[in-house]
Amino acid sequence: MMPADQGHADADRDRLRDLWRRIQAGGPGEYTRVVVPSLSFDREELSKIQGIQFYEERFLLSLLRLADPRDRAIVVTSLPISPDIVAYFTGLLPERVRQDVGRRLTLLSTHDPTPRPLTEKVLGRPRLLERIRRAIPDRGQAYLTCFNTTQLERRLAEELGIPLSGADPRLGWIGTKTGSRRVFAEAGVPAGLAVAPVHSRTDLVKGLDEIARAVPGMRRAVIKLDDSFAGAGNAIIDIPTGLPDDALERELRLDRALEGLRPTAGESATTYLVKLEHMGGIVEQFLEGLDDSPLPSPSVQLRVDPDGQVQILSTHDQVLGGPIGQTYVGCRFPADCAYRSHIQELGLAVGSVLAGHGVIGRFAVDFLCGAGGQDDAVHGIEINLRVGGTTFPFMALESLVPGELDPVTGDYRSEAGVRKYYFATDNLRSAAYQGLSPEDFFEIMDAHALRFDHGSQTGPVFYMIGALSQFGRLGVVCIADAREQAEEMYRHVVGVLDQECPEDRDAWSPPTHPMGLPLADLE
Question: Are residues 31 and 134 in the same domain?
Fold first, then answer.
């Protein structure tokens, strides 16, 4: 007898395949996206990130898909979205569809800011569930989309009677750090040395010893919690120099070195190791170049369609920051041409393996390039079996600038044949921006003409605007016709905000990444 979960997954795939084909064919008839942007991760991991509930606002960029008159969207968030913010996004739509948007858009909220998965909040509110059901005009033409897919999302899809668009929760192991390593091996993608899984301090010490013996002179190792995201579950450890040959003495010295463990989230080594025992993880070689400068960390985003076809969506160079340089804070599109074709090829190899396992939906593969001073060295780092930080900027580009990605070159060209570029971050932050209401922010935008221009198909697009007042944090995608123009646009945006919100720079100064762009790091 087929397991119930497998039956649900197969039924979802069949329903999604039929709906996908109808949408792609461009035929008449509306379809409904039920958007529940739940970050369904460990609660303690979620609590590490300030203003985590405002990450849900990144999905408001999907409102730009309402440019398709067949599209209906039901968007559920933890907190109500300001009408000014909704008006901003709908104002970016073509004028021909704006009058109809009110009928095709439903916004609902749990009114619950607690740092726990949104899906869990929705499932605990029967009346809200019923309101969502009533808002779906035809369940045969609807699907559920979320940030990541777990058994919570599977249950919500069943409650609503619609298919879940995303990887079957039973395949969630693929998106763990340990699972990524298994897939890389299956796909023939090179990766640095690693020991996985590790579940205890003893495992960790033995893993460090194994890697240190295999890579003499290695200065650092990185430890990653299996089910974490955005680098928030990573930690760096320095490897003691001159480790002796005696096995017991080596392990004692490595064990003492754990006291100097540096977690990304700024927590203590003790609490981090407790989480490692609870969640499990991986210890791996810290890949670095010949000097101390950070290695390029590109990412390729792909999708397995419901019919099993693997498609490249985009490539990015990720900008990493945080206390130990392991946290995603922004990206450039597209990735550098020096390795773009290579990571696309490796990404497709991973996608083929994932499709073979039955995965559908979006995912991204992260890499490091140039390890050990070898310009052609590309190593797989992890698989994000979900939408991610690079998903939303590209969503803005393809919605606002109709065109297509060349699957060979990785360039995105508008319908007029113009190459498009962007710089994006969801972590533009300053203490001076705190207290800005959406209304305040839009006044600043208008006063300085910080608007996307449909004529030139360039300009900034803002999101996570609701996080400004409490956390002084904002997201922005700067779309331009050249890479340098996109980054200069970002500098201009920062300059305007700093001008309008002056503060004592002796008290606080935003960190910079190697390109000199002021970027704030996650706390």
Answer: yes
